[in-house]
Design brief:
- This protein has 739 residues and is mostly helical.
- Helices cover 77% and strands 4% of the residues.
- The protein is built from 17 helices and 6 strands.
- Strands 1-5-6-2 form a 4-stranded mixed sheet, with helices on both faces. Strands 3-4 form a two-stranded antiparallel sheet.
- The two termini are 30 Å apart.
Length: 739
């Protein structure tokens, strides 16, 4: 039967089935009002029956699939057995071919030789086991002796600790009171010594303070004399010539200024005007803050007096901060760098140092330098022995010298630095000038001109420009220091008297305790003897312990070596035995070659037979599986048809329950027509399609009598025919099962 014919037959079966359902429904409807319930019960029972058949077919299919799987596994196992048996048979054939009398004899001889080797190796193992046993015995004995020595050492150590504790207790008893008294005496003596040293120091401070007061008084007296008398006055002609030159430094103006100034002769004349006073001949430190204050105020007063004569109203200032900066700069860039500004090979100003220090302070700096303490008309001084007179004269002489031509490239630059306003040597930024004075280690004087700002604080701690006021402050401070030093000396003297009394008391306490320690001394002597004995015993026990430990180590090493030799001998024996077993197996195989070959042949044949049987069983199982698969597909198709019939029955009952008797009769006639004339199905289907579209457009409209009723009945039968065709087509589709 071809596919096309099968499709047509199945479709007719579906229509016939539908017609039967319609007829049954009509009959049931005519007999009773429960037609729908009866019809549904019948179709539902058919569905349940066909589903049970599907479940049974599925179970049979699963069982058949399991049988196929088991049969396949048996075939695989049997195939592997054939491969193994084939290899064994090949080996047995080769063994049979090698089983000649010569090979058997040779293998037997090898077994005998190897047996001798095994016996020898076994003997070696036995002998080495004896060695190990003996070494273990020695090691155990050494361990016992070492343990005993360790215990003895611990006991001796405990005795030493006990004797040490006893000695400590005896010594503590002996020295407790004496130690306390001795410590008290030592502390008292130390306190007295410290108090005595403090008194000496306080006396030195008083002496120094008194000297400072005397020095300050001398300075006050001297400064009072020089403040008004040490001034430099310039002639009107000099001032006029200097102004002309600074305004226009031409050759003519320079010559005119030189003529008026009279050069070095006039400098000498000015220097001789300095008022020398014996009260100024006190040795001072040029870096002392008070001396620095006097010098800078003295220099600024000289300069400001000159600027006032010149017609300038802006004055230079002096401050502690400017002096500190001057001292720091000279030390760093002249003393530390061994920079001799004049000398035989004078280097001049340290310009790099000036630039660096200006950057550091973030300000403008100008520097004037003079011969200072090195040379002037009154002689030569040194930094170590300089006096206030020398310092003041150096400042006076340097500033007087700056008023005249320096010679060379400097020309009148010093005078220019004194008499310019807002600028110095053509450099702006000198609107608030403060002067700092410092002497380098060579004795030369440095006059540092700083532009003070709020940021660099160089104008802070400014000095009063009244020299006598500064000197009086020095005296006041010195007198306050002297009073403080005297008060401290008085306190220190009182403390010394108290400390000396404490020393006497401690000495008396120690003398009283020296006669009450005889028994404690005997106990200490006894404890020391016991400690010495315990330490001797400990040293003996320690030496014994070390000896036993060394013996134990050697015994352990010997035991380890013997055990290693035993393990090597055992390994040799095991290798020899394995070789012997291999040779014996070779002899057995050669001797029993016929039996081994027969057994291998039989095993191979049995494996082949088993494979044949397993292969047949697999084929039979596959046939059963194919049958079960076909039956399962048929059962599933039948179940699907039953479900469709149930759906048709439900629809027919619904149609019949809602129509008249004429409608039901017309539906029956249509079904009969479908049953008897299969070829009319195609035209009916086409009509049904159109009718169904119309029915869809009029959905919700109840069936009417006449033509409308006939149309509804016809549409119901056409629907049944289409469902039948769908059922037939589905029935032809074969379900593919996978497992």
């Amino acid at each position: 039967m071809n596919k096309k014919k099968m499709i047509r037959l199945t479709a007719l079966v579906g229509v016939a089935t539908a017609t039967g359902v319609v007829a049954e429904a009509n009959q049931a409807h005519a007999a009773t009002t429960t037609t729908t319930e009866t019809t549904n019960q019948t179709t539902n029972a058919s569905v349940e029956s066909t589903q049970a058949a599907v479940d049974a077919a599925q179970s049979a299919f699963d069982t058949a699939q399991t049988s196929v799987d088991n049969a396949q596994a048996n075939v695989t196992s049997a195939s592997n057995n054939v491969t193994s048996a084939s290899a064994t048979l090949s080996s047995a054939i080769a063994n049979k071919e090698a089983a000649t009398s010569e090979n058997i004899a040779s293998a037997t001889s090898a077994v005998s030789s190897q047996a001798v080797v095994v016996a020898s190796a076994s003997q070696a193992v036995s002998e080495q086991a004896g060695v190990v046993s003996a070494a273990a015995s020695v090691q155990a004995s050494a361990q016992a002796e070492a343990t005993s020595a360790s215990a003895s050492l611990s006991s001796s150590s405990a005795n030493v600790a006990s004797a040490t504790s006893a000695l400590s207790a005896a010594e503590a008893a002996l020295t407790s009171d004496q130690s306390t008294a001795a410590n008290n005496l030592s502390a008292a003596e130390s306190a007295a010594s410290s108090a005595s040293a403090a008194v000496s120091s306080g006396q030195a401070a008083v002496d120094n303070a008194q000297a400072a007061v005397a020095s300050a008084q001398a300075i006050v007296d001297a400064v009072a004399k020089v403040q008004s008398s040490d001034v430099i006055n310039m002639s009107v002609a000099y001032i006029t010539a200097l102004k002309n030159y600074l305004a226009n430094p031409s050759s003519a103006n320079a010559a005119a200024l030189q003529e008026v100034a009279k050069g070095a002769d006039y400098v000498k004349e000015l220097q001789q005007k300095f008022k020398s006073d014996a009260s100024l001949d006190v040795v001072v430190d040029p870096s002392d803050p008070t001396v620095q204050e006097v010098l800078s105020v003295y220099a600024v007063n000289l300069i400001n007096h000159l600027r006032n004569q010149y017609g300038l109203t802006t004055a230079f200032g002096a401050s502690a901060n400017a002096n500190v900066a001057a001292i720091d700069f000279v030390k760093k860039y002249y003393d530390d760098e061994d920079w001799n500004i004049f000398g035989t090979n004078g280097k001049g100003h340290n310009k790099n140092g000036l630039d660096a220090y200006a950057d550091q302070l973030n300000t403008s700096i100008a520097e004037d330098a003079g011969s200072g303490l090195t040379t002037w008309v009154n002689g030569k001084a040194t930094m170590a022995t300089t006096t206030l007179h020398n310092l003041l004269y150096a400042v006076y002489s340097d500033i007087a010298t700056m008023l005249f031509d320096d010679g060379g490239t400097n020309n009148w630059s010093h005078a220019q630095s004194i008499f310019e306003d807002g600028t110095i040597l053509g450099t702006d930024g000198f609107n608030n000038v403060y002067l700092g004075v410092a002497f380098d280690k060579y004795g030369y004087a440095h006059y540092e001109l700083y532009n003070a700002t709020e940021g660099n604080h160089l104008g802070n701690n400014a000095y009063s420009l009244d020299v006598q006021t500064a000197a009086q402050a020095l005296l006041t401070n010195a007198q306050a220091s002297l009073a403080s030093a005297k008060a401290s000396l008085q306190r220190m003297t009182t403390n010394l008297m108290v400390a000396k009394a404490a020393v006497v008391a401690a000495q008396n306490q120690l003398a009283a305790l020296e006669n009450s320690s005889a028994n404690d001394l005997v106990a200490v002597t006894k404890a020391r003897t016991q400690l010495a004995s315990a330490e001797t015993s400990y040293q003996t026990a320690l030496a014994t312990y070390k000896q036993k430990e060394e013996t134990l180590k050697k015994a352990g090493d010997n035991l380890a070596a013997a055990q290693a030799s035993l393990e090597a001998a055992q390994a040799t024996l095991a290798t020899a035995k394995a070789k012997l077993a291999e040779l014996e197996e070779t002899v057995a195989n050669l001797t029993n070659a016929d039996q081994l070959l027969a057994a291998a042949q039989a095993a191979y044949e049995q494996a082949v037979a088993n494979l044949t049987t397993a292969t047949g069983n697999l084929g039979a199982a596959q046939v059963d599986l194919a049958k079960a698969e076909s039956q399962l597909a048929l059962a599933e198709d039948t179940a699907e048809q039953a479900k469709v019939r149930a759906a048709i029955a439900a629809q027919v009952d619904q149609q019949l329950n809602g129509s008249t008797a004429n409608d039901r009769q017309s539906a029956g006639q249509d079904a009969t027509s479908l049953k008897t004339n299969g070829r009319a199905l195609t035209a009916t289907v086409a009509t049904a399609s159109a009718a169904k579209q119309k029915q869809g457009a009029n959905q919700g409209r109840l069936p009417q009598t006449g033509n409308d009723d006939q149309e509804a009945s016809t549409m119901a039968l056409v629907g049944l025919g289409m469902l039948g065709m769908a059922t037939g087509l589905y029935g032809y589709k074969k379900k593919k099962l996978t497992k």
